[in-house]
Design a protein that fits this description.
Layout lengths: L33 H19 L23 E8 L8 E7 L5 E3 L5 H8 L8 H9 L2 H11 L7 E6 L5 H9 L3 E7 L3 H7 L6 E3 L2 H7 L4 E7 L8 H11 E12 L4 H6 L13 E2 L2 H10 L2 E7 L8 H13 L14 H13 L1 H22 L4 E8 L3
Parallel strand pairs: 4-5, 4-7, 5-6, 7-8
Antiparallel strand pairs: 1-2, 2-3, 3-9, 8-11, 10-11
InterPro entries: SAM-dependent_MTases_sf
GO molecular function: methyltransferase activity
Protein name: Class I SAM-dependent methyltransferase
């Protein structure tokens, strides 16, 4: 979530899976649990990561672009340079901004090998259990998304959630929209997990463009919640949505807002930059015009309802996690010793007051005033597919 998985602006990712098959992750030895089980899995993965990193990180990138992938302008400027602040995999990532249309994009962009490397063990494998718990706790947010679409529905509908992850949105949305049947699409095995759990009727695995070619005119609603920013070619994804929808069907898109003031104030600590996963961040005007040019009519544009009030606490956590010694990760040359583990625990414990203060500011100040102050970190567009 897609060409790659997605991540919501104020939460851990809840999106489509990896951009290709990831290698099987080794299980822990029988009888182990907790820290010991994780340490065994990390140790089993370390040789594979060491081999992949033997040639350095330059092999994970395409050539530098000299024109905007959205409008073709050559008037580009550097927007941000950062590292992987979530997984802490090696590499430096750059975002450029087009001075003509405002589009923000990763440059140079990850190639297929790079996408596979940086997504591995994030949504699946080593990171699967942790993120599944985060997704499961997003019920209120998922219901709010479904409620925003309800006024535009006229009766029973078939809905495809693109980049569904494990289908938690679909399960929550079904409670709000009992006349809707939900299917999910994901490039990882998340769609099958969602089907087995009863969260979706059908779990499709693969790319959206391939599904659109197989099943044109199948759905009444297509949702892309924090998915499009991960796509290598957003225009192809919009065309796939148009092909998959029946005439009059609805397309719902949530994406991070690169014009959010927090993006400037927080710099590299603004979570929705999410490097290296986010490849494209389109201003709302750009995406509206692109939708209209693809055969859609925009019915609603929402900012406050798409906002997730976690910018400050997420920035505080990212900074604190960057300062603390690393935990045991398979892409590090060796596991941390007891002293480093103790130092990490102490650093994170010392940062708890900062995290609590940031969370309070998010909820009590930044959240209620986000729309008025231009602090909304995402926007939502609801569009209708026109014509045959």
């Amino acid at each position: 979530m897609s060409s790659a998985p997605r991540t919501d602006p104020g939460e851990a990712p809840d999106g489509p899976g990896t951009p290709g098959p990831s290698p099987a992750t080794a299980g822990a030895a029988p009888g182990r649990s907790g820290h010991g089980a994780r340490a065994a899995r990390v140790a089993a993965l370390r040789p594979g990561y060491r081999r992949e990193l033997a040639d350095g990180t330059a092999v994970f990138f395409e050539a530098l672009r000299h024109r905007c992938p959205w409008c073709g302008s050559a008037r580009l400027g550097g927007r941000l340079r950062t590292t992987d602040l979530l997984q802490h995999k090696p590499g430096v990532f750059a975002l450029d901004r087009c001075h003509d249309c405002g589009h923000v994009f990763q440059n140079p962009r990850l190639n297929e090998r790079g996408l596979a490397f940086y997504y591995r063990d994030f949504y699946d494998g080593l990171g699967e259990d942790r993120l599944d718990g985060v997704f499961a706790g997003r019920t209120a947010s998922y219901r709010a998304r479904a409620a925003s679409v309800r006024p535009h529905l006229t009766g029973p509908a078939e809905w495809l959630d693109v980049g569904t992850g494990h289908g938690h949105f679909c399960a929550s949305a079904a409670e709000v929209l009992p006349q809707v049947v939900f299917d999910g699409l994901d490039r990882s095995d998340g769609a099958e997990i969602a089907r087995r759990a009863g969260r979706v009727r059908h779990g499709h695995r693969g790319t959206f463009t391939a599904l659109a070619a197989r099943r044109p005119g199948t759905y009444d609603v297509v949702s892309m919640f924090h998915y499009l920013e991960h796509a290598t070619d957003p225009q192809e994804e919009l065309e796939a949505a148009r092909a998959t929808l029946r005439p009059g069907g609805l397309l719902v898109i949530d994406v991070p807002d690169p014009e959010c003031r927090f993006a400037r104030l927080l710099g590299r600590w603004w979570l929705p930059w999410l490097q290296p996963q986010h490849l494209h961040l389109a201003p709302v005007g750009n995406l509206r015009r692109r939708l209209e040019g693809t055969g859609f009519t925009v019915l609603a544009q929402e900012h406050a309802r798409a906002h997730d009030a976690v910018d400050l606490v997420a920035a505080a956590w990212l900074a604190l996690d960057a300062l603390a010694p690393r935990e045991d990760l398979p892409w590090l040359p060796e596991p941390p010793g007891a002293v480093r583990r103790a130092a990490r625990g102490a650093a994170l414990l010392a940062g708890v007051p900062l995290l609590l203060a940031a969370a309070l500011l998010d909820r009590a100040v930044a959240g209620p005033l986000a729309g008025r102050l231009g602090l909304t970190n995402a926007y939502r567009l609801i569009a209708r597919r026109e014509g045959p």
